[in-house]
Amino acid sequence: MNVLQKKFAVLDGQTVHSYTLKNDAMEVTCINYGCIITKILTPDQNGVLENIVLGFDSLEEYQKFSPYFGAVVGRTAGRIKNGEFELDGQTYILPQNENNNHLHGGIEGFDRKLWDAEVIEAENEVGVEFSYTSADGEEGYPGNLKVTVTYTLNNQNEFVISYHGVSDQKTLVNLTNHTYFNLSGNLKRDVLEHELTINSNQFAELNMELIPTGEFIDVNETAFDLREGKKIREGVESGHPQNLLAGKGYDHPFLLNENNHKEIVLFDEESGRKMIVKTDEPSVVLYTGNKLEGQFDIRGTKSRNYSGLCLETQGLPDSIHHSHFPSCVLEKDEEYFTKTTYMFSTAK
């Protein structure tokens, strides 16, 4: 196992580096701009190594076109209604960067920051530790928040993302990674034939602006019942009002029934690739790329709807406005920590 560091770009006089984590079977490449995962190369059932995530080869493309490809988003993932919230009687105003709402940390969120990076080379794993301090008032949030995001890869083909944060004031924190997966390899096909299993009995109902209403809907007898696995196509072709609302597909938080026990499985039968996701987060937001059509090229392939799907392990979006949701409030000097593991294999 080893880590290869290279120059990726120059941003405002500072070098953006890429880091490629390699084990005996696969590799993960990321950059210290937005902690973006640019490539994950894994073998198919015939041993052919191909890229299974959406991304670009230049910083300019990420800055101009990217729908959060591969990035860490924060301080809060998802939408915050009306771009405002209240803590201890004080109202905080956030940038409204999607309609009237605040999305994925704002105009200059964590996905657009240059992070410090330190290579990790241990006996059983390799990785990169990214760190960034979000100043008090950045994008409207209170508190100086020190954040560390660590990517590690081991020889069991486990890729682990760990998030850590501490603030000197009470604030909101809800981090996730926004990688778009496509297990066909090198974007040969869309993800409609991918089979997805999520151990979840309920999902959060969304309003017309894709913000949780506060209600949970039972998945029984709907395209949202992924407990035994369903092809993505079923949700795209579903007439369920929530599937139609999301633009014919999914953009929904699923409440997880359990944690750290293979609660999410993505499988592509044609390539044989399988990805198992374990997390300590209460939910996963499934987004099936319903709005990717024709906006840009992805390494020579015109973007199209359902080119990839996101599995954003996180707290529920807009939880600050719903007291019965798991809280994303971080107290002063309290430690924020969460971890998600991705395990890659093939099924012959």
TrEMBL record:
Known pathway: Carbohydrate metabolism; hexose metabolism
Residues that hold beta-D-galactose according to the record: 178-180, 251
Transmembrane stretches, start-end: none
Gene3D superfamilies: 2.70.98.10
One GO term (biological process): galactose catabolic process via UDP-galactose, Leloir pathway
The keyword Isomerase is annotated on this UniProt entry: yes
Active-site residues from the entry: 178, 312
PANTHER family: ALDOSE-1-EPIMERASE (PTHR10091), GALACTOSE MUTAROTASE (PTHR10091:SF0)
Species in which this protein is naturally found: Bacillus taeanensis
A Pfam family per the record: Aldose_epim
Any one GO molecular-function label of the UniProt entry: carbohydrate binding
Protein's name according to its UniProt entry: Aldose 1-epimerase
Keyword annotations: Carbohydrate metabolism, Isomerase
UniProt superkingdom: Bacteria
Catalytic activity: alpha-D-glucose = beta-D-glucose
Family: Belongs to the aldose epimerase family.
Enzyme class: isomerase
GO cellular component, one term: cytoplasm
Assigned EC number: 5.1.3.3
